[in-house]
Amino acid sequence: MARSATSAASPALLLAAAFLLLAASNGVLARHHVPVTSMFPLEDVGTPETPPAPPAAPPPPPPPPVPATCMRSTMKGYSRAVALSSDSLFVFHWTITKTGMNGALEAKPRSGGEKGWLSIGWTQRANRMQPGDAIVGNVLLPRGRRVAAYAMTGKSMSKINETKRVKLTGASVQRTTGGRTIFKFTRVGKGGLAPPNYTGHNNMIWGFANTQNYAIHTQRGGLLVNLACKV
Q1: 160-162 and 146-152 strand pairing
Q2: How far apart are CA 158 and CA 128, in angstroms?
Q3: If DSSP states are collapsed to H, E and C, what string results for the chain?
Q4: What are the distances in angstroms from CA 48 to CA 38, 54, 73, 157?
């Protein structure tokens, strides 16, 4: 009978021993701060992808052009003038009339203007060639020297075409005894892609080259001109 009692008590003793062993294990884990993941590692999902870099900020808009310095013209028949180039070898002279303006493009000696074309233009946007209009004096044309107006709708030669929307009269090319080349014209009205403001500021451009291709420039620039400036 004593043997059967011992056998009956064995499962209970075994269960109690298991509980004691589990309690002891939990105590050891707690004392050593063993993380759960060290016992049950998570599945390796790989390194997370680096998020794409944000798009670059657009460049700031160009600053507005500074008004060109207006001076009294030294050419007879004109009241105002502005230097087109920094070396003042190219100068634009004008005077306002009741119907428009009289203008003159002057290429001084050793400027190279005596060998090519020189232009003054009006544009809708500052420092942009198109859309706009240009008055060009050319000494290289096979049919002779002449001054004419051109509409500019693009930068290529095919987009620069002679226009009748800008009305010119009295256009001429003159050479002086001092070696200057002068392109003269009278502009009537406000026709064209970029009509002039005879009483205020104008976005204007100029260019020069010793070639017949008006899309190629040896020198060029943009300026803000007050055609009614005080001198």
Answers
A1: antiparallel
A2: 17
A3: CHHHHHHHHHHHHHHHHHHHHHHHHHHHHHHHCCCHHHHCCCCCCCCCCCCCCCCCCCCCCCCCCCECCCEECCCCCCCEEEECCCCCCEEEEEEECCCEEEEEEEECCCCCHHHCEEEEEEECCCCCCCCEEEEEEECCCCCCCEEEEEEECCCCHHHEEECCCCEEEEEEEEECCCCCEEEEEEEECCCCCCCCCCCCEEEEEEEEECCCCCCCCCEEEEEEEECCCCC
A4: 21, 18, 72, 54
The amino acid at 134: A
- Per-residue pLDDT averaged across 172-185, rounded? 86
- Tokens matching residue 227: 């055609």
Beta bridge partners of 220: 207
How far, in whole angstroms, is CA 73 from its chain's centroid? 33
Q: What is the pLDDT of residues 87-118, one digit of tens each?
A: 999 999 999 999 999 999 998 887 776 677 88
Q: Angle 63-228-219 (CA atoms, 0-180°, nearest 5)?
A: 50
> What span, in angstroms and rounded, lies between the C-alpha atoms of 49 and 98?
71
pLDDT tens column, 7-35: 445 666 665 555 555 555 555 444 555 45
